[in-house]
Write a structure and sequence with these properties.
Layout: H1 5-9, E1 14-19, E2 21-25, E3 33-37, E4 44-46, E5 50-52, H2 56-60, E6 67-71, E7 75-76, H3 84-97, E8 103-107, E9 113-118, H4 119-122, H5 128-143, H6 149-179, E10 182-187, H7 189-202, E11 207-209, E12 215-217, H8 219-222, H9 228-232, E13 235-240
Parallel strand pairs: 4-8
Antiparallel strand pairs: 1-5, 1-6, 2-3, 6-9, 7-9, 8-9, 10-13, 11-12
Helix pairs in contact: 3-6, 6-7
Length: 244
């Protein structure tokens, strides 16, 4: 099966882009100069080097060797509308196809990450098998925007655990100490983490992934199924508050 540029243009939620950069020639000489390039020399490139082709006239007059395909479902950043869907897609796509010389990881400011696919590799008959798999993957994302639900769910849960480790365990300890009228001087953080994870399993969802891939934890909901005895088992140095 011969892949055509028309098939690629028909893939939804993608953009076609040109690449531009420059490299320093004769870097060790006083006579150095910069040379423009239209194809990456590294497997990792910058969003700033990619320019979306918005006009058909530009596309028709741009050599195939200079065009790069990007999927909206495989781009994310810290302050955009992305969630764990895009992060999982990028991870899995790179695991499957990242070793191919025409697949590039794209970086930018504020955690921006994406994937660029060089059309000259995608249309090369020598890459036909992998190219068909890539096109099938991109088309499937338009039917369902997640490559693998299980991987995405695992990444979301890892984000929850990381958020617990960062600061939420301390916040939960303060809430529990107030709720159970305890002055806490020291506690077993690992044990409390296990108790909180168990509480999360038995109650309403206490966390979700916000835009930008950040995990938000509702600490009041998270502690709602932590019993007094469970909490006491985590404390190593404490006194009861005088309520009189």
């Amino acid at each position: 099966m011969v892949i055509t540029i028309e098939e690629i243009k028909d893939i939804g939620n993608t953009t076609l882009n040109t690449f531009s950069d420059h490299i320093r020639k004769n870097p060790d000489s006083m006579d150095y100069y910069y040379e423009d390039i239209n194809y990456p020399i590294s497997k990792e490139i910058s969003f700033g080097n990619l320019n979306e082709i918005s006009l058909k006239s530009t596309l028709d007059n741009t050599p195939i060797d200079e065009i790069f395909l990007m999927s909206n479902y495989m781009q994310y950043g810290d302050y955009d509308n992305s969630c764990m869907v895009e992060r999982s897609n990028v991870k899995l796509f790179l695991e499957s196809f990242g070793q191919l010389p025409f697949i590039f990881k794209v970086y930018g400011g504020y955690g921006s990450t994406g994937i660029a696919i060089a059309l000259k590799g995608l249309l090369d008959p020598l890459n036909e098998k992998k190219a068909l798999e890539i096109i099938e993957t991109l088309n499937n994302l338009n039917d369902y925007p997640v490559i693998d639900d299980e991987d995405m769910s695992n990444m979301e849960y890892e984000s929850f655990l990381e958020s617990l480790d960062s600061f939420e365990i301390r916040d939960c300890n303060k809430l529990l100490a107030t709720q159970y009228l305890v002055n806490v001087d020291d506690y077993d953080e690992d044990k409390l983490k296990d108790v909180l994870i168990e509480s999360d399993r038995h109650g309403n969802p206490s966390w979700f992934i916000e835009s930008g891939g950040i995990c938000y934890i509702d600490t009041k909901e998270l502690i709602s199924h932590v019993s007094l005895s469970d909490y006491y088992s985590c404390l190593t140095d404490f006194t009861l508050k005088n309520t009189i």
